[in-house]
Design a protein that fits this description.
With 388 residues, the chain is an alpha/beta fold. The protein is 52% helix and 11% strand. The protein contains 13 helices and eight strands. Helix 5 runs parallel beside helix 7 and helix 9 runs antiparallel to helix 10. This is DUF2062 domain-containing protein.
């Protein structure tokens, strides 16, 4: 089979660690399609080295000590990149993947001119699939969608086609969790990620799993926590701002707010949530909270984010003064803002802080309700006008 597909060169990377029972079958199967193969022996202690002696025509990359699948893949990627390959197809050496599915990836690659990352989608409902694997895949799919907005049926399969020249410059993980990091961070670079159907074989007599349930699941959970935080604090706001910059305000308002599939009630509640978060004293976390809570309550994240920007610098002095003024009716002298900068003490700071917190919370509630109602009435008016 030609190693050039749609003007893109491709190779195969096979990371292996103590899979001597199945390695030869996998390599021989891949050889039916290409001899551009990189085998990364990740410190195997079984007969792997003896088996690889028969494949000296291939690229054999030996790692003296086992360092994890992620590290092995990165070694393979770097070598393939140094030889100017555009894509690398990775296949596990434990026998669960069928080399006969290689054309499935190449057909999909031929169908697009844009960079793409393909992940083999296994039938995880098959009776041979271990329940822990099925659960782990659903768990991974859920967090991947939260982190990227992309819905996939399989995010854990190691049978993948990677766009080598569109990776992040460096990675932070080197074990099983690497395969999560690489697809999430590639998606953040706006590279298309798609599933393709593949076969799968789980033979308990042959397959050796190196997954350590407690340790690796903990590492994956920590990684997902970091990725979700980055998503809410940076990626989501960045995407909204980029979308806003690419469009005129009128187009942004029309396409991303007026013409979204959300109901007018949801849009109004989304704005109200954003305004509330933007006024209450949660400095530095407005963006995170507005998007996070909108996701939790299934509201419009874009509208909530826009609403939270009520606290942009030009408005801050007015919000602070209004908050202190409102708070003064409930804390301290009624209707007066008592700030004596010449005699500041811990007691006075404490009093004014309480005054500000109380006032900003009340002001945030009032403004959220007011602007939410105005938004709801305006949207209904727009809807009736466009329907007429």
């Amino acid at each position: 089979m030609n190693i050039v597909q749609n003007n893109k060169t491709w190779c195969v990377i096979i990371p292996t660690y103590n899979n001597a029972k199945t390695l030869k079958r996998v390599v021989d199967g891949v050889l039916n399609y290409t001899n551009h193969i990189f085998i990364v022996n990740d410190g195997s202690t079984d007969e792997t080295a003896d088996i690889l002696e028969n494949y000296k025509q291939l690229y054999i990359l030996n790692v003296p000590q086992n360092k994890g699948k992620g590290n092995a893949l990165q070694i393979g990627f770097k070598k393939a990149l140094s030889l100017n390959y555009d894509y690398a197809l990775t296949i596990d050496s434990d026998g669960q993947h069928y080399p006969t599915d290689i054309p499935v990836f190449l057909e999909e690659l031929n169908a697009t001119t844009e960079p793409i990352l393909l992940i083999g989608s296994r039938n995880m409902t098959h009776e041979s699939v271990p329940k822990k694997s099925s659960f782990g895949n659903r768990f991974s799919n859920f967090w991947f969608q939260i982190e990227t907005g992309i819905k996939l049926t399989d995010t854990q399969s190691g049978y993948r086609l990677y766009p080598l020249k569109h990776f992040p410059k460096r990675f932070f993980t080197n074990k099983f969790e690497f395969e999560i990091e690489v697809i999430v961070r590639t998606a953040w670079k706006n590279i298309s990620i798609k599933n393709v159907p593949i076969q799968v074989l789980y033979d308990p007599n042959e397959r050796i799993s190196h997954f350590r349930p407690f340790r690796d699941f903990t590492r994956i959970s920590i990684l997902n926590t970091v990725l979700v935080s980055i998503t809410l604090l940076y990626i989501k706001p960045r995407n909204i701002l980029l979308k806003f910059k690419k469009k005129s305000f009128k187009t942004f308002l029309k396409e991303d707010i007026l013409q979204t599939n959300a109901s007018n009630e949801v849009k109004a509640l989304s704005l109200a949530l954003g305004v509330f978060i933007g006024i209450v004293p949660v400095w530095g976390f407005q963006t995170f909270l507005s998007i996070f809570l909108a996701a939790i309550f299934k509201l419009n994240k874009t509208i909530s984010f826009v609403g939270s920007n009520i606290s942009i610098p030009p408005f801050i002095p007015f919000i602070v003064i209004a908050s202190l003024k409102v708070g003064s009716f409930f804390v301290g002298e009624s209707g007066e803002i008592l700030i004596d900068f010449d005699n500041i003490s811990f007691h006075s700071i404490k009093n004014h802080l309480l005054q500000y917190i109380v006032g900003s919370t009340i002001l945030a509630t009032f403004m959220a309700v007011l602007l939410g109602l105005i938004c709801y009435v305006t949207l209904n008016f727009y809807k009736r006008k466009t329907a007429a």
